Amino acid sequence: MTDRPSMIQNTLSSTNHKFVLHKANTKIFNWQVQKFDVPDINISTAKATSSPKVGSWNLAGTAINYDRLRVQFLLDEDLQAWIELKTWIKEIVDPYGTQPTNLYNQAESTAAIHVMTNNHSPTGQVFTFHRLYPVRLGGPSYDVTVSDPTPLTCVVEFMYDTFDLEIAVDTTI
User: Fold this and answer.
1) Is 68 a member of any domain?
2) SS3 state of residue 77
3) Nearest to 17 by CA among 74, 71, 88
4) Range of the domain at 133
5) Which of 98, 101, 167 is nearest to 133 (CA)?
6) Is residue 161 part of a domain?
7) How many CA atoms lie within 13 A of 104 on its CB side?
8) What is the pLDDT of residue 61?
9) How far apart are the C-alpha atoms of 139 and 86, rounded to whole Å?
10) Is 1 part of a structural domain of the chain?
């Protein structure tokens, strides 16, 4: 008798998530998040050779590299979410040069993506991003040539030290 994995009961839906940024003064942004991709994880590699006749091969390296976390969010008429993120960027780097860079103090944060079931209850699976901060904030794109008005969105990109997939026993958010 072979050990067979259990059948997949439900597939994961791309709309079943909750994004939570644990940063003061970003409450509007948390409600406006529309789309994001869990970033890729890469390891460095090195090419090794022994002799010209044998050729070369790749070896796994010693560093893990993470791509940026890219988040698309809706804009309201007052641009509140965009202003929250712009203010955060200015906390990190003073554009006028009158304040020191504040990257490793209050300017960094933690973000969590809670995976939800098809019934919209937490699965306990949480992608957690540690020491997260914005590095790119896109601007609104206004266009009078569209025939049907659509809500405006922007994209923000975050860097972070690491991220993990945590399996929580307590599924309250």
Assistant:
1) yes
2) coil
3) 71
4) 17-38+58-167
5) 101
6) yes
7) 1
8) 81
9) 10
10) no
* Distances, alpha carbon 157 to alpha carbons 45, 68, 144, in Å: 26, 6, 27
Q: Which residue has the tokens 């006028």?
A: 96
Strand partners, 141: none
* CATH code of residue 93: 2.30.110
Tens of each residue's pLDDT in the chain, 173 residues: 556 666 556 666 777 778 889 888 888 888 888 888 899 999 988 888 777 777 777 888 888 899 999 999 999 999 999 999 999 998 888 777 776 665 555 577 899 988 888 887 888 889 999 999 999 999 988 888 888 888 899 999 999 999 999 887 766 66
Kindly give, in sequence order, each residue whose CB lies less than 8 Å from that of residue 95, ignoring residues fewer than 6 positions away.
none
> In which residue are the tokens 């890729």 written?
40
User: What is the number of structural domains in the chain?
Assistant: 1
User: Is residue 138 one of the residues assigned to a domain?
Assistant: yes
Q: What is the DSSP track for 159-173?
A: E-SEEEEEE-S----
